Amino acid sequence: MSDISRVAQALFTLLLTLLGLLLVTFSLSAFSPVDRVLQIVGDHASQATYEQVRHQLGLDQPLPLQFWHYLLNLAHGDLGIASATGQPVLQDLLSAFPATLELATLALIMGSLLGVMAGVLCARFAGSPWDLAVRTFTLLGNSVPIFWLGLLMLALFYARLQWSAGPGRLDDIYQYTVTPQTGFALVDTWLSGDSAAFKNALSHLLLPVSLLAYYSLASITRLTRSACLSEMNKEYILLARAKGAGEMTILLRHVLPNIRGTLLTVIALAYTSMLEGAVLTETVFSWPGIGRYLTTALFAGDTTAIMGGTLVIGVCFVLINNLTDLLVRLTDPRVR
User: Any transmembrane segments, and where (predicted)?
Assistant: First the structure.
């Protein structure tokens, strides 16, 4: 198969996946028990008003036609109006997404670096007390509820020890003095030239980033250890040992390059899970990202906002997975 055919096949698969995502998102909204018309007109509106709004929303049309109009609106960047905020959903998501992206990206960087290093050391000293301690630590990361651990961290490090700032992205004293330019707290405070505001933004990020990094570290460490141990039993490792190479040299120069495809996949899955699973973390730390936005919309029964947020997270999931597949093919000749 030629390179052009592979690219065309990949694009077709991507478009088909996105279309399926749009169909699922639309179906969840169409068959939702929440009446979108009642959300707008209220319970005491007349039947004529109810039918008029229903017609304006296009809900009196057949479902295939509704889906077609939904696709046309998406093509024009129209995700509807959020009943909870009264603003376009796209505008709400554009203001909330940078907060989630900043939180998840910093947590991914921390979790990936620590997770890969811990996984390699566990493979090097497999069966040792260090290995047992790290595996126990990571097991707790996959077992303890994230909201409980977040509340515990707030109670200990913020309320009692006062080592970090509390919920939110900035203290009130900086909230209205820093001009939002990019939507990323660290970048905006850095551009403002206010070092105190930058340190405050870092302090607010410390606890939620550490919490999300801990949960990504747990899976990355375990899978890195397993992949390293699996490679250590292959013949080329025996040859390297016969030539006198040390264990750490073998792990760093031979094993890690051969498991980079696995590491890329694991890290990408951790990233997507943080983007879609930061709901509880953002709620506990009052972080104004998509997770908190979806939680507010869910309690308000705002199906339009829920559809928009779900669609954005789903698109991120699909794009990150496809980008990871591309990177694996580019970096691993065995896959090609």
Answer: 103-127, 139-159, 205-224, 263-285, 305-328
- Residue given tokens 């696709």 in the structure block: 71
Separation between Cα atoms, residue 294 and residue 315, nearest integer Å: 16
Structure-token match 């409980």, residue found: 148
106 pLDDT tier (thresholds 50, 70, 90): very high
Look at residue 203 and tell me whether its pLDDT is greater than 60.
yes
The partner residues of 81 in beta bridges, in order of sequence, read: 88
Which of 75, 106, 131 is a domain's end point?
75
Beta bridge partners of 88: 81
Domain count, the chain: 2
What's the pTM value of the predicted model, to 2 decimals?
0.82
Which 3-state string (H, E, C) describes 272-317?
Answer: HHHHHHCHHHHHHCCCCCHHHHHHHHHHHCCHHHHHHHHHHHHHHH
Contact 254, 236 (CB under 8 A): yes
Give the CA distances from residue 40 to residues 30, 289, 310, in Å, rounded to whole numbers and listed in that order.
16, 25, 21
Residue carrying structure tokens 């390293």:
228
pLDDT of amino acid 181: 84
Same domain, 37 and 162: no
Tokens of 289: 């990202």
- Residue 48: which domain range? 3-75
- pLDDT at position 105 over 60: yes
